């Protein structure tokens, strides 16, 4: 397996998902991210460890279903994404809400 370059690692993680459910998961040291659709669990683990300098315990991924949206008479779909729930070791933390 070829080694993943730094540029590819930066492109795997798109943005953190902040919802009511994911903020409850922060208490269990789990973080949710929207990731590249073709990324596998090993790539996601390497990317999170590289970006945030933490040790990842496990990675769970899912493809939420596409949702339809209607604007007037036009019907479309919301953009599709892949969701990754990353569990960290007990001594590591990611600061998603930095103080201003």
TrEMBL record:
One of the record's GO cellular component terms: ribosome
Gene: rpl23
Pfam families: Ribosomal_L23 (PF00276)
Record flagged with keyword rRNA-binding: yes
Name of protein: Large ribosomal subunit protein uL23c
NCBIfam families in alphabetical order: PRK05738.2-4, PRK05738.3-4
Gene Ontology molecular function: rRNA binding; structural constituent of ribosome
PANTHER family per record: 60S RIBOSOMAL PROTEIN L23A
A Gene Ontology biological process term: translation
Family affiliation: Belongs to the universal ribosomal protein uL23 family.
Record key words, sorted: Plastid, Ribonucleoprotein, Ribosomal protein, RNA-binding, rRNA-binding
């Amino acid at each position: 397996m070829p080694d993943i370059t730094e540029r590819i690692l930066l492109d795997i993680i798109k943005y953190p998902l902040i919802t009511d459910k994911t903020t409850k998961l922060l208490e269990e040291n789990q973080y949710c991210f929207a990731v590249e659709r073709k990324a596998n669990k090993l790539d996601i683990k390497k990317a999170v460890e590289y970006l945030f300098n933490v040790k990842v315990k496990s990675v769970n991924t899912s493809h939420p279903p596409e949702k339809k949206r209607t604007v007037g008479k036009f019907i479309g779909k919301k953009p599709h994404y892949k969701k990754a729930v990353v569990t960290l070791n007990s001594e590591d933390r990611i600061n998603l809400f930095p103080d201003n």
